[in-house]
Design brief:
3-stranded antiparallel sheet; 6 helices; single chain; Arc Repressor Mutant, subunit A; Double Stranded RNA Binding Domain; alpha+beta; 181 residues
Length: 181
């Protein structure tokens, strides 16, 4: 694989381009996944440095959502990108565009299923499992429950991202659409 050597400005523009093509707020884990699966775009260290720089100049903003940080392109970031996107080689722009089309739905779904847990005074843990709409950060579904141990809380939150659609569908069918007895 051929590695593309960027100057600092091009690294920042490339990261702004990724945000624009993905069209959704991105968590740190999603951003890391994008960069790690495409090492010819940016190295991980270059990505971290560029992220901090574009955050510092407010080309992206950060918001908290279900215990995770989500980064989103700002209007100033879009304006900057519109002036300098041609600094990114066309082949890399095309590669990012293809990646975005193939992966945006998967990444969006993985970020919609949020969770948090905390320790209670009695030693148990409370877990909060959510399904959110990224557009306006509203919770469309939320479960809050106690579990005996931290291990149980961690296990539940790990399973949530994979189980959320099935659990929500089941409850929707049984409670909202089901027969009344």
């Amino acid at each position: 694989m051929k590695y593309f050597v960027h100057d600092e400005m091009t690294r920042k523009i490339l990261l702004l381009f990724i945000f624009e093509k993905m069209e959704i707020p991105l968590s740190e884990s999603s951003l890391g996944e994008i960069v790690m699966s495409n090492p010819d775009w940016l190295s991980y260290m270059d990505y971290r440095e560029a992220l901090n720089k574009i955050l510092e100049v407010k080309f992206i903003r950060v918001k908290s959502s279900a215990g995770d940080l989500l980064y989103q392109l700002t209007q100033d970031g879009r304006m900057c990108l519109s002036h300098f996107y041609k600094k990114i080689p066309a082949s890399i722009r095309e590669s990012i565009t293809v990646y975005a089309k193939e992966n945006v739905l998967r990444l969006k779904r993985s970020q919609e299923y949020g969770f948090d847990y905390f320790k209670n005074a009695d030693g148990t843990h409370t877990i909060v499992l959510k399904i959110e709409e990224n557009a306006n950060n509203d919770s469309i579904f939320e479960i809050k429950m106690k579990v005996p141990t931290r291990t149980d809380a961690i296990r539940a939150t790990k399973k949530w991202k994979h189980s959320a659609p099935d659990i929500y569908g089941y409850l929707l069918d049984k409670i909202v659409e089901g027969d009344i007895k």
